[in-house]
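2024-03-11 09:14:02 DEBUG pipeline.ingest accepted 1 chain
2024-03-11 09:14:02 DEBUG pipeline.ingest length=407
2024-03-11 09:14:03 DEBUG pipeline.predict start
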Amino acid sequence: MTNQTQTSGATDFLTLTAPPRGFHENPFPVYSRLREDAPVFQQPDGSFILSRYADLDRIYRDTVTFISDKKAVFGPKFGIGTPLYEHHTNSLVFNDPPLHSRVRSVMVGAMNPKALAAMEPGLIALVDTLLDQMAGTVQVDLIQTFAGAIPINVIGNLLGIPRDQRGPLRDWSLSILGALEPTLTPGQLEIGHQAVRDFKTFLHLIIEDRRNNPADPETDVLTRLILNPDNKLTQTELYQNCIFILNAGHETTTNLIGNALALIDQQPDKRAQLLHNPNLIVAAVEEFLRLESPNQFGNRLTTKDITMHGVTISAGSDLHLCIGAANRDPRQFHDPDEMQLDRRPNKHLSFAGGPHTCVGLTLARMEGRVAVGRFLQRYPNFKLTSGASRGGRLRFRGFSHLPAVLN
C-alpha cells in the first residue's frame, strides 16, 4: 500500500507484465519518465519498480532491510519443489548469508588475478579463431557466431567441461534465465523445468569424474567447489551453483558484446575514436555496460515497512531494481544518454553493488575488452543489416540475432 497517489497518468508508465509497444526495442524514454515522475512505482501485484541511482545504491548496500532471498516470490511463480524453484532458490544471486558467503568465497578465490591472467591468452586465441572463421562470409549473425560462443567456452574452461559436450549449454541457460521474466506461458515454464533437469543430469558425470580426478583448485572452480574443506556444499547447492555460474557468465557477457557492437555501429564517430586509440577499449567497455546494461532489473525483498519518496512500502514487498534506468540517472551521470567512451568517473550499477557485486565482473570486463577490441581491429568496417532481434525480454537486454556484413 502507498500513502501517496501515483503521479497523474503514471499508470501507463510501465507494467512489467504488459509493457508498452516498442519497449523492448527502446525502454529508455519509459525509464526516464519513471525516474523523474514516479521513482517508486507500484505494480498491479503490489510490487514496486525503483529507478533512481541513489536508491538502488542504498538498497544494494543495506542487506538487512533489503534481502535477496526470493523463496516467497518463487514459490508461487515456479511451484515449491519444482526444478526451477530448486535452482533459483539455491543459486548465489538469490541468497543471503550463510549460503551466499560460503559459495561466493569459493568463487572469488578461484577467480583470483593470477588465474584470470592465465586465462587471457586462451581467450585471445578463442576470439581470433572465431574471427578467422567469419572471414570471407558475406553475412554473419554476430550473436550466434561470435558473442554467444565466447562466454560459453570461457566458462566451460573455468569449470573444466569437455569442449565436445558444450553444445546444449546455451539453450539450457536461456531457458532457465528466461523463467525469470515477469510473465511465462505454461510451455515456457515446462521448458525451464526440463532445462534444469537436463543440466543436472549433464553435470552428474562431470562432477563425479572431478571428485575422482581433481584438477588444480587454484584455477578450476569446480574442483574448488567440490573439495574446499572450509565451505562444504550440499549436493543440491553444488549442482545448482554450477548451473548458476554457467548461466550468469553466459547470458550477460553475450549481451555485453552484442550491445557494444550495436552501439559502435550506430555512432561512426565513436567507431573512429576506438580505431584511432585502441587502448580506449578498457574505458569504453564500462560505457557500453552503463548505456545498455546486460541485466536491466535486479530484485530485493523488504524486511520491514519503509518509506521512499513519500511512498510507504510494506515489509515483504518485492522490489524491481531498474538498473537500466539508474545507469542513465542525470543526478549521477553528466549527459547520461550520450556515449562518452572515456567517461570518468563511471560508477555504473551493471554489476550490482554491495556484498552482491557480481563475482565475475573482472572476467566479464576482460571478455568484453578482448572480444570487442579485437573484432573492431579485424573488421573495422562491419555494418549491421536488417533482421536484428532483441528477443522480447525485459530482465536481460541483448540481442537474440544481430546480422552484419563484415566488408
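2024-03-11 09:14:41 DEBUG pipeline.report The first helix runs from residue 28 to 37.
2024-03-11 09:14:41 DEBUG pipeline.predict end
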